[in-house]
Amino acid sequence: MGIELSYAVSKLQSLSTSDHASVVSMNLFVALLCACIVIGHLLEENRWVNESITALVIGVCTGIVILLVSGGKSSHLLVFSEDLFFIYLLPPIIFNAGFQVKKKRFFENFMTIILFGAVGTLISCGIISLGVIQIFKKMDIGSLDIGDYLAIGAIFAATDSVCTLQVLNQDETPLLYSLVFGEGVVNDATSVVLFNAIQSFDVTHIDPSIALHFTGNLLYLFVTSTLLGAMTGLLSAYIIKKLYFGRHSTDREVALMMLMAYLSYMLAELFYLSGILTVFFCGIVMSHYTWHNVTEGSRVTTKHAFATLSFVAETFIFLYVGMDALDIEKWRFVSDSPGTSVAVSSILIVLIMVGRAAFVFPLSFLINLFKKNQSEKLSLRKQVVIWWAGLMRGAVSMALAYNQFTRLGHTQLRANAILITSTITVVLFSTVVFGLMTKPLIRFLARSKQTTSMVMSDPSTPKSVSVPLLGEGLDSELDIPRPGSIRALLATPTHTVHYYWRKFDNAFMRPVFGGRGFVPFVPGSPTERSFIQGEGE
Hints:
This protein is mainly α. It has helices at 2-42, 51-69, 82-100, 103-108, 110-136, 146-157, 161-167, 174-200, 208-243, 250-270, 275-293, 296-324, 328-333, 338-369, 380-389, 395-405, 414-445, 451-454, 486-491, 493-513, 526-536. It is globular. The N and C termini lie far apart (86 Å). Keywords: Antiport, Ion transport, Membrane, Potassium, Potassium transport, Sodium, Sodium transport, Transmembrane, Transmembrane helix, Transport.
């Protein structure tokens, strides 16, 4: 009995010590997040540094300090977790991007975004995979099978849409932002789908039927994920419009918007769809319908709440990646051959650059052939910026690499350790070097004479309230004339789609789901007071 009691006491003491260590780690991590925010604010006007690079550098410096204090045993406060990244950190970032995106610019370039994001990712993955198969087999890095080589292609084909948000400005370069970020969202989704397909299919026997099955699976995931996101957004708009929570409590409508947004992502994961695409399109639909159905106070609250959650999640990711870069367990395996690790990282960086160039420039050429308006064509300068801004690799690549080459964040194989450390090196190098040079490159190459005309706010986003889903300007039929023939449809397809979408939206969608001009009318509400004031005037 005494032995059991002493064992229980010692067990409780060890648990208490473990809990206290976790509390200390969380305190330090939160303090570092605060430091990132403060230092990022002080460097706001710097033309080279952005907040992602600031968080990375702080993370690396912190890792060095922890490494020294712990006597070389550890370099990070938290253990990297794919669930933490994919379930808790990524959803608010992607949702806020859809919620704040300039929809007119995004949908105007929708086919270009799909070409770059889906077809381009497949081309990049193929080139990187072929390159590593030819080169790595000649290097002594350990045993890798064909599935590992294809997985490497999918891992490094994934651009960092989070870092794109940091280095490109939606107001200064709206076209480049919509193309690079829109491509990044589709690219991340395609890379994750491609990675999962490589893990699930028997890649040792590739034949046309498997390729056809994969293509069909990709299209199915894209369509169903988009529809799920749109349906969840419409459901939230309908519930808030019909019940009008704001007449009793604005807290409820804000909470419902947040929970419905997160529900869209979790439903996609539940049905094995692309949560990235689902939550992105949910954000677009919510900003067009749901956001207009809540009270004025809730609009301000949701706009800043989503932006704040996204900002904290972005900072968290980059801070952790910086700290994890010095994980001593993985570097121990490559300490006897540092040249091999450097060579692998260098080869991967070159293949990433070649793989991206292989689709950006040819696809841009094809896209320009179908653009009749000279101002809509992608000039060589813009193509260079698109190519350069998409070279950064980030947390998606890290998470996929950990999934493929570790078990619960640990590895005992030299080849896997080399690829993990090489992934960390590529992420750090691409984020810092390419990220540092992106802003100056944009200023040098993409200084547009039409900046004033391009920087028009898209008021259907939560930043203002004056434009429909695909439009810019007043909501009147004078803006876009009625297409009179098939020839007009082919000549100006975007304007034609916009015209019919507006008619359909005003006639069927907004009366049911709300939106600008169709907000709930409740006695004593802000809507009624503004209506009475308008009548009095």
